[in-house]
Design brief:
Elements (H helix, E strand, L loop, with lengths): L16 E2 L3 E7 L7 E4 L2 E2 L9 E6 L7 E3 L5 E4 L10 E9 L5 E11 L7 E2 L3 E6 L10 E2 L2 E2 L9 E6 L2 H6 E3 L5 E4 L7 E9 L6 E10 L5 E5 L15 E9 L7 E8 L6 E3 L5 E4 L14 E6 L7 E4 L4
Length: 315
């Protein structure tokens, strides 16, 4: 003979359970507020008549970010995510029956980075200095920017945004931000350095770089020919030749004003103050004078330097 003990259990006396105790979610930080992140579904025995309600238990740093619908278990975002502030959220969805039995679902949410930050330079402007002995092997200065985003969204590349002359004089290491000279030149210049991230939709920032130079300019006066010729009896204001200024690297120098300082005392010649063209002021007579000695001065300026002047040798 066997003796059996049978215990009667209330069909409603059952704790709700989820299909898993823990779920892991991943969402980008720029998803819209009110997005449904997950639908929690708890179950009890088939024979129970208990109604399940849902509530949310969150850690202090998650307060206000999430909500759960009491009856359908929809877990929603209620506050914009920010990976740079909180990259990971831990919360718990509680499922409770009418008679107070509660089951729990742990939710682990990882916030994925979106490219939502611009690169930030360490300072709004930088100053570099160039001398005649500055080497192209050593940087004249280095700019630095940081980006709060991660991976490619936070990887910074630098480039110089400037005119062709500045790009001919300087270059920047795109990864380190170090600025180098290609060749030294007189005059101060202002460069604009751009820091851009490597995200799919790149974000950019700019900083100014002021480059000062104590390189002394070498400027020479160039002429079509040191012996300009013109036939006698040509009408007044006939072109004889022209002068212009060139720097030691062969490039032309912008001139503010040309002036004829010596024409042999006869006042037979004139010069265009803007173009440097030398012309006659009267009809020349070879029998009266077959040679004329001319001297020209030119006022010019170089970037970042005061106005200077240059005189030609006798023409």
């Amino acid at each position: 003979m066997f003796q059996m003990n049978v215990e009667l259990v209330d069909a409603d006396d059952v704790t709700p359970s989820f299909s898993s105790d823990v779920i892991r979610l991943e969402f980008p930080e720029d998803i819209p507020v009110s997005t449904i992140l997950y639908v929690a579904k708890a179950a009890v025995g088939a024979s129970t008549n208990s109604t399940i309600s849902y509530s949310l238990n969150v850690e202090a740093n998650n307060d206000g970010y999430f909500s759960v619908d009491r009856w359908n278990g929809e877990l929603r975002l209620r506050r914009a995510l920010d990976r740079e502030v909180t990259a990971f959220h831990r919360l718990s969805v509680a499922a409770t029956t009418d008679n107070g039995h509660t089951g729990y679902l742990n939710v682990l949410l990882t916030v994925l980075d979106s490219n939502d930050h611009d690169p930030v330079f360490s300072q709004p402007s930088y100053t570099c200095h160039v001398t005649s002995t500055t080497s192209g092997n050593n940087p004249i200065c280095t700019v630095t920017a940081t980006d709060s985003d991660e991976k490619e969204n936070g990887r910074i590349v630098y480039f110089i945004l400037a005119d062709d002359e500045a790009l001919d004089l300087f270059h920047i290491n795109p990864h380190s931000g170090a600025i180098y000279v290609n060749r030294t030149a007189p005059g101060n210049r202002t460069l604009t350095v751009v820091a851009t991230d490597a995200g799919t939709l790149p974000r950019k920032s700019r900083a100014l770089v002021v480059v000062t130079s104590d390189v002394s300019p070498t400027v020479n006066c160039a002429v079509d020919s040191l012996e300009m010729k013109i036939e006698e009896n040509q009408p007044a204001y006939s072109i004889v030749g022209s002068v212009h200024l060139v720097s030691d690297d062969g490039t032309n120098v912008a001139v503010t004003r040309y002036q004829l300082t010596e024409d042999g005392g006869h006042q037979n010649f004139d010069i265009d103050v803007k173009t440097g063209e030398i012309m006659t002021k009267s009809i020349l007579d070879r029998e009266l004078s077959s040679n004329h000695t001319l001297s020209v001065s030119a006022v010019y300026s170089l970037p970042g330097m005061p106005a200077l002047s240059q005189n030609t040798d006798n023409l």
